[in-house]
Amino acid sequence: MGLTESDTRAKLIDPAIHARGWNEEHIRREETAGAVEIIDGRPRKKARGRVDYVLRLEASPDRQPIAIAIIEAKAENLAPNHGLEQAKSYTACKRMDVQFVFSSNGHQFVEFDRFTGKTTQPQPTAHFPTPNDLQTRYEQGMGFDLNDPLAKPLSTKYVGGEATRRYYQDAAIRSVFEKIAQCQKRGTEKRALLSLATGAGKTFIAVHLLKRIADSGQLKRALFVCDRDELRTQGLAAFQNLFGNDAAAVSTNNPQKNARILVATYQTLGIEGEDGDASFLIKNYPKNYFSHIVIDECHRSAWGKWSVVLTRNPEAVQIELTATPRKIETTETPEARNDQQITSDNLDYFGDPVYEYDISQGIEDGYLAACEIHKGRVNLDQTGLTIDQVMARNPRHAITGALITREEVKETYEKNAFENGILLPDRVAAMCQDLFQYFIDNGTPEQKTIIFCARDRHADDVAATMNNLYVDWCKKQDKQPVGTFAFKCTAAGGKDCLAELRGASRSHFIATTVDLLTTGVDVPCLQNIVFFKYVRSPISFYQMIGRGTRLDPPTGKLMFRIYDYTNATALFGRTFITKKQREGTGGGTEPPETPQIIVEGFDVRVSPAGRFILTNVDGRAVPVTIEEYKERLAERLVEEIKTINEFRECWISPKWRREILGRLPDAGRSPILIQRLEEMNDFDLFDVLGELGYGLLPKTRIQRTEAFYYKHQPWLSNFPLQTCNTLTALVNVFSNSGTDGLESPAIFHTPEIAKAGGLKALRIIGKPSEILNETKLRIFAA
Questions:
Q1: Do 378 and 486 reside in the same domain of the chain?
Q2: Domain containing 708: what range?
Q3: pLDDT tens sequence across 180-211
Q4: Are residues 179 and 126 in the same domain?
Q5: Is 700 exposed, middle or buried (0-12, 13-18, 19+ CB in 10 A)?
Q6: Confidence of residue 341 (pLDDT cuts 50, 70, 90)
Q7: Last residue within a domain, chosen from 360, 387, 421
């Protein structure tokens, strides 16, 4: 079988590149948060994911090493270019953002140069480029020298070291510094755009960008602009952690001029919308007052108005942070045209993003919660309503209760005007009942949830209906209802309950909203996002989804669910380069206020449209069905390991098993997701994968334990009683904890194993590690 991937690194690649001048100061093994496994219904983090080698330039010990290359190591028996395509399309371009990509089996290597776009033929590892070789090529490709003063932020160290930053945050910061240095060298505008998923730590990036610029001696005064007061508070706290009193918030009563870092909202600066005149900004801060400007979420306010912040400071370094995709496929709706305008303006001004990190990558790395999607179909969505159908059911005015005339209905009527102008209580009831049943099926209705509704009255109705369903359920369960189960949280009311939504564990489970919870509200414990409203803006959609992506270790939240009743998730993964739309923005996402009409008596049914997993397909976050997801997983598994016998032999080796899992879709998380979604927590991952890839009849851990005793009793009977008892105790550990439980370093110190005889009992018949492997092989025998 040859050397494993890890042994290839240690025994072949490490010595070869060391001989070429790459010592430990030049090499970093970047880690990701790692996959998640579920044991006895409880989530547990597995080993962290890794990029094999990140090669970094270090001009001197007091300067920040700069990542410029990665090596994708493969097992000795594979071709040297086996990992190159994976590294080119996935690691280098999407994750590490380095310029040179290598793949090696320890004996030979191949290289892809992003500057030239060319790939070399295999070469002996003895010819691997030296640090000086790559530094020269890096500087030539970038167009600046690392010793040039304009590149100083790039080589300025992180304050407090690198322990807290994530690999993609470092890549994003480095990409900005490289872009700004290139702009300064060419004499062009110093602008950079970063696109990172909600929850990926944009504030961390902003703070450390400015801190390293400040420590390099190049920051005079900086402005950080965000959209809401809560984000300003959050941002100010982060900046003050590193800048102390040199960071201050701007308010209408206190323009602040003493601090070097000013944190403001669009509203504070007087540029909240099209009616804003920027008078506060113009009055208090003259042109070119700021040397650096960081804008968080440009699209959250009218582009033409807030851009005065940038145009009044043309000499400043200008950086935009956004969580929405730069390419949007759209349809001819006012909301989509508005998105087109925003995207077009941003790309015109800032250029393409220097770095992108989307939701699927965050999920794959284990930094964002995994996402399962349940789609529902409402029959009226397919057929629509006619005016005759509305009139036949005696429509009433929502406020006065008076009957509505045909002419008045015509003023409001649209075919799919559900919950905007025409209120359908039956539709609300059917959708809420279906959603409530989902909650019950997944354990309990008491799950932190945001339901996006069409308008304020709709949010009221949904909250009331969900509360009624909850009270009825509690009565059947002989349970005392919580004080507040569902509540409306819109601009019209309920904002005071946000703290309880975020922090209360025994109340305020369901918030019904329109747009208030789209951005600016961090609720890590959120378990569900629900779409009862039609969403036509991809930008708004991604902001809504971002409410659920954060992990929450205190509550054990590692995944969230989307319940989609309006096909909103069709907006996932679309790509389209927008055409310029200079004639106007086309309006926002909310319909104009119109008289609302209540119509009852419709036959409303909700039918399931399928279950989906959000995953990375060709570099895009798209939903795929559970079956498609399983097919992709099985295909990759069989591509790596051809037969069940090979798979069994690899599985009992911790090294080989980790490498196998790391090569599967979503960096090893995929079999764990299937284990959870298919309710196979009683099965070892061996059986989950064995069934998918090789048609193995899956057995629970208990069934495998029972089968071991009757299949291998003759083998056990050959050993002394003490040894037999120890092996039996070991197999019992597997029945409770699976393969990982057998491989715990502390296993022989547990009371059960020690009482049976422990290591001493195994040494009677041979080497304990070999006997343990034999036992594992027999546990997984056919």
A1: yes
A2: 701-779
A3: 999 999 999 999 999 898 888 899 999 999 99
A4: no
A5: middle
A6: low
A7: 360
